[in-house]
Design a protein that fits this description.
This protein has six helices and two strands. The protein is mainly alpha-helical. The chain has a two-stranded antiparallel ribbon. 19% of the residues are buried. Pfam families: MarR.
């Protein structure tokens, strides 16, 4: 038996959940980029626009709140929101309760685009995860558990 060139407990990368997640994530991101290309949105732009559309219908969103909801760091959130604002998909308006803050509001054009793009994203997800069949629900539950555990660890 050949000695491993790395000090690992694994027989190879195919046994590493992190490596597999990285490969799967890259493949999934390629699919998402292709699905969003007709809408001229990056995946980060889509996530922030869709989240703002979803949550903005029930609460006044600030940049900090949107960053928290998406799990996107504040600096990236700021940069992406500037691009969405330049494209007239969102606007920053005076916050109704905090004079120091701006509220993020999705424009009609932004809502219309989010509605179209979410269909493409969900179709891409369905095709990507189709090989899992009925295990898809189990995968989602495992993802939710990982998200919850890591959000607690980050507090």
């Amino acid at each position: 038996m050949m000695k491993s060139p790395l000090p690992t407990r694994l027989s190879g990368p195919a046994e590493s959940p992190g490596f597999l997640l990285w490969k799967i994530s890259n493949a999934w991101q390629r699919r998402q980029r292709a699905a969003l290309q007709p809408y001229e949105l990056t995946h980060s732009q889509f996530v922030l626009l869709a989240t703002a559309t979803w949550f903005g219908s029930s609460e006044t969103l600030t940049q900090a709140r949107l960053s928290q909801l998406c799990g996107v760091d504040p600096m990236t959130t700021s940069q992406v929101l500037r691009a969405l604002e330049a494209a007239q998909l969102i606007q920053r308006i005076d916050h109704p309760e905090d004079p120091r803050a701006k509220a993020i509001s999705v424009t009609k054009t932004g809502r219309d685009l989010a509605r179209k793009a979410v269909v493409a994203v969900e179709e891409a997800d369905t095709a990507f995860f189709e090989p899992l069949g009925s295990d898809n629900k189990r995968l989602v539950a495992m993802f939710q558990a990982l998200v919850e555990a890591n959000e607690r660890a980050d507090e």
